[in-house]
Amino acid sequence: MRQSKLFTKTRNTAPKDAVSASHKYLIQGGFADMLMAGVYTYLPLGYRVIKNISNIIREEMDKTGAQEMLMPALQPKGIWDETGRWESLEEIMYQFKDRSGKDAGLGATHEEVIYDIVRRNINSYKDLPFAIYQIQNKFRNELRAKGGLMRGREFMMKDLYSFHISQEDLDEYYNEMINVYKRVYERCGLEAKVVEASGGVFTKKYSHEFQIIAEAGEDDIIYCTKCDFAQNTEIAKSKAGDACPKCGENLKQGKSIEAGNIFQFGDQYAKDMNGYASNKDGEKKPIFMASYGIGISRLVATIVEIYNDDKGIIWPESVAPFKAHLISLNKNEEAEVIYDKLVKAGVDVLYDDRDSSAGEKFSDADLLGIPYRLVISKKTGDQIEVKKRNEENSEILSIDEVMGLIQK
RNA sequence: CGGGGUGUAGCUCAGUUGGCUAGAGCGCUCGCUUUGGGAGCGAGAGGCCGAAGGUUCAAGUCCUUUCACCCCGACCA
């Protein structure tokens, strides 16, 4: 990709009201653009990050045998009335009447839609267990959107639903999913604390949150610095300074970002929406359900909150919009040659071919935070100056050495 | 929804007790010169001063209403 053609350009000032690093840098760098409070366009750079994170999630979900599909965002009132959530979610769900006077809403979550399909299609224990997921925009009528991509009214989410013939079977999958989730965060460069929590407005049942310790967070948790023990202060039985019940280390209290949430609904939907299947003995049994969510657009912001410095973003390689940022100084012909080589070798490279000053190019490179900066100038001859975004020093390497480094 | 704040050029902002044709920096266009940390000179384009109503000889400035955005709170997969 040639930077001269990239939609959009970087800005040299951050949005005036942005407080958090992720809000500032994602807007300033041209990763996202606000349409209204809490509603953002993912520009080409930001959408590349979204796709990278989505693919990590897909790989991990697919490994568990889950199947991806896509459900509608526009939904009828009827199925929500069956669970009573049309009323209980009316503060968070966008609800309205269409032109024929029918009540409709925009999906804030998808348990009702998926369970409606399941009850009409699953009749036997032989079809259980299974899991379905989708990656889709959710709509939530937040009283106050904030922090850029951190809390939006329309935001991207991966939601997975698992179905089981028994609570035991659900427990097994649920516990496995905790580890799958940890692996997803780890692959995105994040260390998640697994926190027992209340389900909020969505359910009163058993649930776990995945929390990333960060100052920009909205949640407050008690956590252990040595092991993965953590509790939300809303329901915590421990306090800062107490010994960790798991390993004995002193507990700390801190701000954190809720990067995921999983719920057990048990047989509640079976009762509310009449979803039953026959077991081995021909007995009618409830179809158990659990839900598993990861806010993908929030994860983008979370990663930036963890990986940044006073100059910009420092993307982990696994999610970076490009692997390498090739910078040409002095209108260097050699850079064109090297760009061609990188593209032919299949390297994701952003090529700064703009006719602008060295200082501007370096500043933008720091802001965009692509892992490998490759500089071509009069000084470098037929070689390349390589600097990693997360390191201070650079080195001069041959094109072959650079290929080896980047493609490893 | 309560409290606080902000709306003036694409962006960041200035604009005095109301007073001539509305300003700067950055960005943009053209020309020349530059090129290792946000370059220089010259020329230029760009505004219904968020919207509506009112006061006044005169409104970016005062009053009323309303819309939008931000921050704190309440709320929150």
UniProtKB/TrEMBL annotation:
Residues 38-316 form the Aminoacyl-transfer RNA synthetases class-II family profile domain. It catalyses: tRNA(Pro) + L-proline + ATP = L-prolyl-tRNA(Pro) + AMP + diphosphate. It is found in: Cytoplasm. It is an enzyme of class 6 (ligase). GO terms for molecular function: ATP binding; proline-tRNA ligase activity. Keywords: Aminoacyl-tRNA synthetase, ATP-binding, Cytoplasm, Ligase, Nucleotide-binding, Protein biosynthesis. InterPro entries: aa-tRNA-synt_IIb (IPR002314), aa-tRNA-synth_II (IPR006195), aa-tRNA-synth_II/BPL/LPL (IPR045864), Anticodon-bd (IPR004154), Anticodon-bd_dom_sf (IPR036621), Pro-tRNA-ligase_IIa (IPR002316), Pro-tRNA-synth_IIa_bac-type (IPR004500), Pro-tRNA_synthetase (IPR050062). The keyword DNA-binding does not apply. GO terms for biological process: prolyl-tRNA aminoacylation. Its EC number is 6.1.1.15. Pfam families: HGTP_anticodon (PF03129), tRNA-synt_2b (PF00587). GO terms for cellular component: cytosol. The keyword Nucleotide-binding applies. Homodimer. This is Proline--tRNA ligase. The gene is proS.
